[in-house]
Each structure stands twice: as C-alpha cells, then as structure tokens.
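quick q for whoever's on today - can somebody do inverse folding on this one?? i tried earlier but teh output was garbage lol. tokens:
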C-alpha cells in the first residue's frame, strides 16, 4: 500500500474555508456554507490534524450490572485507497492483543488465539457500546451527504441541526443527525440511526481540548448512550496523542496473523 496525504490535506483546507464562513452562518442563511465545507468543518472541530497518527484512549463501559474499564491504542494511516485505522487493546489483560482493523473495504478482527483475521463490520462492538466506527472516528465528509439542515431558529434545541445520509450501504450507520454550535460549528452531539431507521445511539461530545503547543482543537471526551438498552453508556477519553513512525503492514489484513 502506498501512503497518500492528499485527502486529509483537502479536508483540512475545506475546514478552514468553513470555519471562516461559520461566523456569518446565521446572517447569511444555510446556503452561505457549501455542504462539503460544512461537513469538513464538523470533522475539523472534532479531529486533530492529520500529523497525529497514534492515540491512546481510556474507555469506561457502564451497564445496570457492572462497570468495566479498558485501554486501547489507535493508529491511523492514509493510503491512496483511503483511510485505515487499527484498534489494539492494551488492557485489561484478558483483552490485550485483540485487534480491529478498519479499512475502506471492510473491518477485520484478530486475537492472540486466532490463526487468521475474521471479517467483521464497522458497526461491531469493540468495548461496551463503542463500535469500530465510533472508536476509529466517524468522518462525515468521507461517508455522508447532507439531507437537511435546520438553523437555530428552526430547531427545538436552539442549535444548528444537520441530517446526514450515508453515501453507500457499506457505511456503519446509514443516517446521523448532528447538533452543532452555530457560531463555532463544533458538534455538541449526534444521534446514530440503525438501518431500520430506529435511533440506536446518542453520542455527546463532552469536552474539547487544544493540542499542546498548537491551535489544533479536538474532542477529548465523548459519551455514548444506548437508546435501545436502558442504563448502558460508554465514555471514552483520549489520554495521549502521538506522532509516530510505523510500518505499512500494520494496516494490512493479511499481515495480522504474522
């Protein structure tokens, strides 16, 4: 696989355009910001710049019966075929070494007791209610189109609301409704819908942070609430960001067993 940086670079450029347009959103109306620029701005507010390619995340899963904790390592790479992400458990001991690989074509699971990776889905649960897609990060610009927008004066929440429709059936969640601050375009929450159209999860972006030594803003803490099973929620917090060098075969499904 050949590394490629053009896609994320363009996403960042569109994000700058949309951020400049955000201040005039209310005054100029919904057409002031193009769909692509708006989606990019919503992504740009949640994600760190593309030079960050490794993060460590602490996850707490709460149900009516128990509370569990885990630590995972996420690594990212951009190739000509798209964005790849690798999720590997560091703790607890019984999960250490289990790995999910999310590629543009499919998602894969591999564990220390397996001889070969198992093809799975981006909607498969990694820990608690955090699926592969949610753990890797759902990028709107890459996978969705805007179906409808409601300004602060039109929505019950008083926030900007955007309904998103998946571009194809390979996307984990076929519909999302995002609520965002109309001035900064920082998402406040998003509702993820199952293929049936039923609301599945609410995701709350609870804490934003600026990466040390930069002006790079990202979501540090997010909380997932299961809308189908009462009393279940999963909270993840980024505890470390890194810029590392690692081999391309970390993102090759055929290399997982090796």
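ok took a stab at it. sequence:
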């Amino acid at each position: 696989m050949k590394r490629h940086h053009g896609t994320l670079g363009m996403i960042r450029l569109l994000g700058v355009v949309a951020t400049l347009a955000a201040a005039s959103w209310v005054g100029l109306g919904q057409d002031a910001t193009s769909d692509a620029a708006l989606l990019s701005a919503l992504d740009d507010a949640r994600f760190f710049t593309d030079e960050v390619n490794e993060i460590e995340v602490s996850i707490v899963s709460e149900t009516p019966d128990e509370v569990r904790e885990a630590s995972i390592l996420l690594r990212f790479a951009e190739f000509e075929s798209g964005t790849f992400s690798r999720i590997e458990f560091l703790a607890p001991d019984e999960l250490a070494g289990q790995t999910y690989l999310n590629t543009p074509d499919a998602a894969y699971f591999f564990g220390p007791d397996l001889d070969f990776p198992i093809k799975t889905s981006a909607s498969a649960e990694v820990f608690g209610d955090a699926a592969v897609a949610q753990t890797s990060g759902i990028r709107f610009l890459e996978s969705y189109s805007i179906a409808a927008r409601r300004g602060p004066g039109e929505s019950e929440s008083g926030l900007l609301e955007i309904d998103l429709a998946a571009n194809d059936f390979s996307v984990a969640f076929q519909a999302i409704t995002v609520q965002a601050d109309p001035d900064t375009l920082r998402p406040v929450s998003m509702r993820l819908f199952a293929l049936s159209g039923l609301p599945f999860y609410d995701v709350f972006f609870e804490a934003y942070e600026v990466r040390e030594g930069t002006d790079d803003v990202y979501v540090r803490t997010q909380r997932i609430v299961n809308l189908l099973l009462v009393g279940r929620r999963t909270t993840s917090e980024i505890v470390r960001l890194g810029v590392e060098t690692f081999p391309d075969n970390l993102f090759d499904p055929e290399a997982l067993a090796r």
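fwiw The longest strand covers residues 67-79. also The chain has one domain: 6-255. so keep that in mind when u check it
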